[in-house]
Every structure is written in C-alpha cells, then in structure tokens.
Amino acid sequence: MENQNYDQNGENNYQDYTAQYASVEGQPYGQNQRGNSTNGMQIASLVLGIIGMLTCCCYGVVGLVLGIMGLVFAIIGNKSSRSGVGVAGLVCSIIAVILGVAGTIYYALIYLALYQGVGPLVDYLQEYSNALQQMNL
Amino acid sequence: MREQSHLEKQLFVIGCVLFWLLVGIAAVLKLGWLDRLPQIPCMFVLVFGMYCPGCGGTRAAKALLEGRLLTSFFYHPVVLYGAVLYLCFMLTNGLSLIGVKGVRPMKFRNGYLWAGLVLIAVNFVVKNVLLFGFGISMK
Question: A85 and A38 in contact (C-beta within 8 Å)?
Fold first, then answer.
C-alpha cells in the first residue's frame, strides 16, 4: 500500500498534505490569525476618538473630522489584532462622529437663527442668551 | 522587546501623518481664520449650563502657538501635555530611526493615556467648581 505522505518519486510531500488540510479548513495555517496585542493604529484611534469627543463643541466640524480619522484607524487596526484598546477606540470614534454631526447641524441652525433670523432655534436662542447673561458665562 | 519597537515605529508613522493635520490647525489659528467665524455660544454650555471637558482647548492651542506656555496650561493642561509628549516621542524615535547614536527612543506606555484622561477630568472639575462655587468664569 502506497504511503500517502510520499509521492511516486519517493519525495516527502508532508508540507503539501498540511497545506491541503489547512485549505480544506478554509484558512491557511499561521496566516490571517488575529493576535491580542495592541497596535499603533488602535492607540491612535482611541486618542483621536477621545479628542474628537472633546472638540465636538468647536463648531462640530473638528470633532467630525477627528472622529472619522479615528474610525478609519480603528477599522484598519482591528483587522490585524483584537484588543480592548481597539474596541474602545472604535466606540469613542463612533461617538465622536455622532457628536460631530450633531454639533455641525446645531451650529448651522444657530448661525441661521443669529444672522438670518430664520430656523427652528430663533426663540430657543433668545431664551438661552438671556439665561447666559444671568449666569455670567 | 521586538514587539515594543514595532509599536513605536507604527506610532511614529502615524505621528508623521498627523503632523500635517497639526500644521493645518496651526495655520487656521495663526492666520486668524477662526476669528472670522461668528462667535456662537458653546453648544455644551447652552444645553447643560456648565463647561465641557474640552473647554478652553482652542484657546490653549492658540496660546501655545504664541509661546505662552503657562497661559496654555491654564486654559487646558492636556494641550501642553500632549504637545510635549508628541515632541519628545517624535524627536527621540525619529533620531533613533535615522541612526543617531546616544539617543534613547521614547517607549509608549499606557500610563501616558491615563495621565491625559486624568488631566481632562481635573480640568473639567476645577473649572466647574470655580464657576458654581466661586462665580469665576473662564472668559
């Protein structure tokens, strides 16, 4: 009976057997396996996400831009490894994007109310500007 | 040890990319483009009636660009902290990468991120205590 690990020329085809086995399972052995260590992209996404959340009040656009950058870094970084920092970076970046969009819309409406006198925030702005003067902010 | 230096190299490359973003922000502040925008009340203050954790960040960045380090620290300490950390990291790792001897590249530690978060939290608490406790605003 012919040994399946040796071909007709008598050469060892053990590596071919392993590769075939791995490909049957659907994933080459040792490749495309995500580790658990943190990489630079994940750290950058966390930092950008936190800064994006803090700067969403700066006309909204700054937080939005930083949040999108953080999201891109998180997606790229989480592809190669999985860690708590990566998940936190992804969550913070998503929140930064949401807050950035909300801030941008809010400031656009405030601008319309202040300088054009139109929009849903005209009365709201008058009421709170009075409150702001009282709070001395 | 090999894994750690790979992390520093990744962070260095990301820092080089972010450098251009910082140049853009510096240009906006230095050229006074921000002053041309209408002065609109802060969204967080209007909604919640208190200062947000990032309050003073823009003023801190502007003061830092003008060389007023203490003023920058007063407006928001994390801006000066982040600038010092970024400069130290990029300088030491950049010099080490090009082969300059005698330079010890700065390693990344999770503690740096935690310290930044603590500074943000302290800034938030102190400014609101000054506002509500003593009536001192940040204008």
Answer: yes
CA B105, chain centre distance (Å)? 21
Gap between the Cα atoms of A37 and B6, Å rounded: 12
Residue B109 has φ and ψ, to the nearest 5°, of -130, 145
Q: Which of B29, B42, B46, B50 to mutate to test the interface with A (most CBs of A within 10 A)?
A: B46
Sequence spans of domains, chain A? 1-33, 40-135
A41-64 per-position pLDDT tens digit: 899 999 999 988 888 777 778 888
- Which tens digit of pLDDT belongs to each residue from B20-31? 888 887 887 777
For residue B115, the SS3 value is helix
Place of tokens 């994006």: A52
Q: Over the Cα atoms of chain A, what is R_g?
A: 28
Q: What is the pTM of this model?
A: 0.71
Nearest CB to B40; choose among A43, A56, A110: A110
Q: Do residues A73 and A33 touch, judged by C-beta distance below 8 A?
A: no
Residues in chain B with CB shorter than 8 Å from the CB of A136 are 135, 137
* Assembly ipTM: 0.74
Q: How far apart are CA A42 and CA A36, in angstroms?
A: 12
Q: What is the DSSP letter of A112?
A: I
**Locate tokens 């990319």: which residue?**
B17
Residue position matching structure tokens 């001192």: B136
